[in-house]
């Protein structure tokens, strides 16, 4: 008979030992390392931070870009640049000393397709019928101006450099350098140039109605063709030209010789700015100034520039104000033949511009009263701001543009302008 061995019931100590053994065995297979736990927590946090940073960056870029798009959308449709909506100049347009002062020769900008052509002297001789006096169009600060017909049938304006020496060479090179890269409907288009040995010529689009100066101040009654509406449209065209140069290029371009002689009129009496021979690249700082020689035309020079040589975009704003006074009064900036106290246009006009009764009396008699008094008061206020003695009180050209737009629109559509005021309020561009 087999002996049966009795099984003892497990004691509490035995059960506890077995449980500890099982837990130890389980932990051996499922042990979680501290490094893994750290990565599991860290990775989502980093991803969240990156997403937030990218979102903030996108929002910031949109915020910065939005005002530019809203403020310049119209200008960017009509003013085009080579490859960029904002043209950037590397350095200044003052060429290397070797180019101007007789050192090693430097080449002019190469012509690019559909932008600027390079002509030979013989080609331009042929275009002007050997510079026939019958094609003589006038004279400006650059030289003699001729009407010419290019080989492809394009009617053009051809300027022959008469300045000699360093200043003439610099003016020619600056004109070619700037206008080969600046493209805007409010600037005269440079079609090409000639640098054939000693011959220096510039070829521009043809502007059939000549200069604003000749139209305003001629003795043959031609100024009567410049009605009130046409004058204000020209003022707006020129304001947009300077706005483009000052605020849509980086760094800004300062014309330095803005005057009625350098405003050309096409067949529709639309104004375009020309003659960039004295232009300077401005400081890349906001309202920054540069020191330079005092060049330009007496009567148009801003006081601070004339006295110190400190040049800013506000110097052009002053010159623009003088041209605006010419459009309003029909007077030249300096006229020694006028009675005492009236020789200098700005000095004579400035006290009257804010006087509603006096400003009507100073208007150009060739307008024969065909103007809106409300428009006149507003335009006079703009002119008064532009010709302030202190540059800090002059407006930006963007402000001038936005102030002129509703006035010009009101003339175009024959509505009242009583609700408009000279301000920095943003208005829809035309």
Automatic annotation (TrEMBL):
Pfam families xref list? PK_Tyr_Ser-Thr (PF07714)
PROSITE patterns from the entry?
A: PROTEIN_KINASE_DOM, PROTEIN_KINASE_ST
Signal peptide (UniProt feature, chain positions): none
Which SUPFAM superfamilies does the record cross-reference, listed alphabetically?
A: Protein kinase-like (PK-like)
Q: Which UniProt keywords apply?
A: ATP-binding, Kinase, Membrane, Nucleotide-binding, Serine/threonine-protein kinase, Transferase, Transmembrane, Transmembrane helix
What CDD domains has UniProt attached to this entry?
STKc_IRAK (cd14066)
Q: Which domain of life is it from?
A: Eukaryota
Q: InterPro entries from the entry?
A: Kinase-like_dom_sf, Prot_kinase_dom, Ser-Thr/Tyr_kinase_cat_dom, Ser/Thr_kinase_AS
Annotated protein name in UniProt: Protein kinase domain-containing protein
Which organism is this entry from?
Tagetes erecta
The lineage, from the top, is:
Eukaryota, Viridiplantae, Streptophyta, Embryophyta, Tracheophyta
């Amino acid at each position: 008979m087999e002996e049966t061995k009795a099984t003892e019931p497990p004691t509490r100590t035995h059960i506890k030992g077995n449980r500890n053994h099982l837990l130890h065995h389980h932990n051996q297979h499922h042990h979680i390392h501290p490094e893994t736990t750290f990565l599991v927590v860290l990775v989502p946090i980093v991803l969240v931070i990156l997403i937030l940073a990218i979102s903030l960056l996108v929002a910031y870029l949109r915020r910065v870009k939005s005002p530019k798009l809203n403020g310049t959308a119209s200008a960017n449709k009509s003013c085009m640049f080579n490859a960029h909506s904002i043209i950037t100049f590397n350095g200044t347009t003052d060429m290397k000393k070797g180019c101007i002062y007789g050192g090693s020769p430097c080449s002019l900008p190469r012509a690019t397709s559909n932008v600027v052509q390079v002509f030979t002297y013989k080609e331009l001789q042929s275009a002007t019928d050997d510079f026939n006096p019958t094609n003589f169009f006038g004279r400006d600060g650059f030289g003699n101006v001729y009407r010419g017909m290019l080989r492809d049938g394009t009617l053009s304006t051809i300027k022959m450099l008469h300045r000699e020496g360093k200043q003439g060479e610099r003016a020619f090179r600056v004109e070619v350098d700037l206008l080969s890269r600046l493209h805007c409907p409010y600037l005269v288009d440079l079609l090409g140039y000639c640098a054939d040995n000693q011959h220096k010529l510039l070829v521009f689009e043809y502007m059939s109605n000549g200069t604003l100066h000749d139209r305003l101040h001629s003795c043959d009654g031609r100024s009567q063709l410049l009605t009130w509406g046409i004058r204000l449209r020209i003022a707006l065209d020129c304001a947009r030209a300077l706005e483009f140069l000052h605020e849509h290029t980086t760094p800004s371009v300062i014309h330095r010789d803005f005057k009625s002689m350098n405003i050309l009129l096409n067949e529709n009496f639309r104004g375009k700015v020309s003659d960039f021979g004295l232009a300077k690249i401005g400081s890349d700082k906001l309202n920054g100034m540069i020191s330079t020689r005092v060049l330009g035309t007496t009567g148009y020079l801003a006081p601070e520039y004339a006295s110190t040589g400190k040049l800013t975009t506000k110097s052009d704003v002053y010159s623009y104000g003088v041209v605006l006074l010419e459009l309003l009064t029909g007077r030249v900036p300096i006229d020694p033949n006028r009675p005492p106290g009236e020789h200098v246009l700005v000095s004579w006009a400035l006290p009257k511009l804010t006087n509603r009764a006096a400003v009507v009396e100073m208007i150009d008699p060739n307008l024969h009263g065909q103007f809106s008094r409300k428009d006149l008061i507003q335009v006079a206020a703009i002119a008064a701001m532009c010709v302030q003695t202190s540059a800090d009180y002059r407006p930006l050209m963007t402000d001038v543009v936005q102030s002129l737009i509703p006035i010009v629109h009101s003339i175009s559509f024959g509505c009242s302008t009583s609700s408009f005021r000279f301000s920095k309020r943003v208005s829809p561009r035309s």
